Amino acid sequence: MQKFDEMYAMLPFDGSDVREHYKRYAQWLSKQPPDVMQARRAEAEMIFRRVGITFAVYGAKDEGGAGNERLIPFDLIPRIIPAHEWASMQQGLVQRVTALNRFIHDVYHGQDIIRAGIVPVDLILNNAQYRPEMAGVHVPQDIYAHIAGIDIVRAPDAQGNGEYYVLEDNLRVPSGVSYMLENRKMMMRLFPELFSLHKVAPVAHYPDMLLETLRASAPATADEPTVVVLTPGMHNSAYFEHAFLAQQMGVELVEGQDLVVKDKFVYMRTTRGLQRVDVIYRRVDDDFLDPQVFRPNSTLGCYGLMEAYRAGNVGICNAVGTGVADDKSVYPYVPEMIRFYLGEEPILKNVPTWMCRKPDDLQHVLANLKDLVVKEVHGAGGYGMLIGPAATQAEIEDFRRALIANPSGYIAQPTLSLSSCPTYVESGIAPRHIDLRPFVLSGREVQMVAGGLTRVALQEGSLVVNSSQGGGTKDTWVLGEGRSTAPMTQSQTLGGMTQTQGGF
């Protein structure tokens, strides 16, 4: 199987054959004493631990007995993307997210794409993420996925050149943006000199863009919209991110018990009485949002919230029912969505996918389990999947039985040779597989910061980058044209400490 490394044109690498956009960094890295870099790694871990940047892991998946709360390992070697590659990727992301929003609106209104025979009706109406309660409901600007996290991987083509593919569309409550922001702050703190050598596009303005996007979803009657972040609470795996984003945007972090609905309007309880809420950035799944409509025993949401929502008195981001478009069984149809709604050819490719709900696809998958990646259509976090080449025969046979019992619950894809990037591991610097999650914001316009969260599979040979499965993260640099000029300064805050670095 061919390999593609982001930094080196040839593997195994020995410091030669450095790709053009990595050359300045490689020259700098070659001059760094190993003990200095080790000290920087230890400093990064200490600061992340002090700031409380953790990720919770639950149950049997808490491998190694390290405890539920753990740091997401941070790697010092950045993933660097040249300007022209990012420009093409950005175009593809805007195109894809625009089509997905059109699709969700269509599903809950005219269902034109179903009547055209492009997407099967049962795939939508029998989908666990389809919410009939949203049928005919108007949402501001017809935007449903205000925040999308699109997982992108790179794999070599037949000529060995790296090609980008969309692996997943995360449209419900995508997480990870806080780590993107904190990784950048950490790199600026540890290596300020690198930002005078490279023209790295900034990411620090993401919270401002997010707040602008959220405000755009407010009811038309709200002159100065009040925005809140709704969290399931401190025991949620992404609680750090919920608190972080609320703080960065300057809005309240609330739990369901802090909200109340009166006369189809939402209010939050404050020490000065009830205050109207216009926009809820929810980090709670649909099922738990409103016990009047969904799970009656949920304590995470607010009774009557859907009534206020359907009346147009509060915006919910992402919209209820958005999950129908990030179902893995719907993913194979996204290229057709782009053609149907936009009349364009997809810029970003899908990974070839077999839909096990189709008898012919199922037979192919069953015959080739040892070579394929098989995923639950509603799975997340790297759970509920089979990586055939890395699985034992017993694991394959167990999965075969599950697949035969519920074929519509799975899709399968070829095992891609994910691109690698040099990474610090116990033995030194070695290639490790990576992916990229850019965050796409849809409000009055579709926009994003240049970059995203790069996740890295720290175990040798592993293709699983998820934080819940032991993956780590890297800072992602999108380079501008030419060398950075130093007069511009950027102020960054890390864990209450403000630092000003030159460089972009």
Summarize, please.
This protein is of the alpha+beta class and 504 residues long. It is built from 13 helices and 25 strands.
Notes on the protein architecture:
This protein has a domain at 352-415: Dna Ligase, domain 1. Helices cover 27% and strands 25% of the residues. It has 13 helices and 25 strands. The longest helix is centred in the N-terminal third of the chain and has 25 residues, at 83-107. The radius of gyration is 23 Å and the shape is globular. It starts with 22 loop residues before the first helix and ends with a strand. The model is unreliable at 482-504 (pLDDT under 50).
Any chance you could write out the topology, listing elements then pairs?
Elements: H1 23-30, H2 34-51, E1 54-56, E2 69-71, E3 74-81, H3 83-107, H4 112-115, H5 121-125, E4 147-156, E5 162-170, H6 177-190, H7 194-197, H8 206-215, E6 227-230, H9 239-249, E7 252-254, E8 259-262, E9 265-270, E10 273-277, E11 279-282, H10 305-310, E12 315-317, H11 334-342, E13 349-350, E14 354-355, H12 359-367, E15 372-376, E16 385-387, H13 393-405, E17 410-414, E18 420-425, E19 428-437, E20 439-442, E21 446-447, E22 453-456, E23 472-478, E24 489-494, E25 497-502
Parallel strand pairs: 3-23, 5-13, 6-7, 6-11, 11-12
Antiparallel strand pairs: 1-2, 4-5, 4-20, 8-9, 9-10, 14-17, 15-16, 15-17, 18-19, 19-22, 20-21, 22-23, 24-25
List keywords for this structure.
alpha+beta, 5-stranded mixed sheet, 504 residues, Dna Ligase, domain 1, 13 helices, single chain
